[in-house]
Amino acid sequence: MxxxxxxxxxxxxxxxxxxxxxxxxxxxxxxxxxxxxxxxxAYYKDGKSISHSEAEKR
Length: 58
Hints:
Layout lengths: L14 H32 L5 H6 L1
């Protein structure tokens, strides 16, 4: 049986890194929410689910 281990590391970003992380997470959140809205609207309109890969194409 394989043993899995996990390690926890603390991360203390500099103020510049905090700004860059906040921007990156903000962009990721925007893309996720926009794609979710697109898929949800398509489902309510047509009653069909759109795959993740199909949503990424738009």
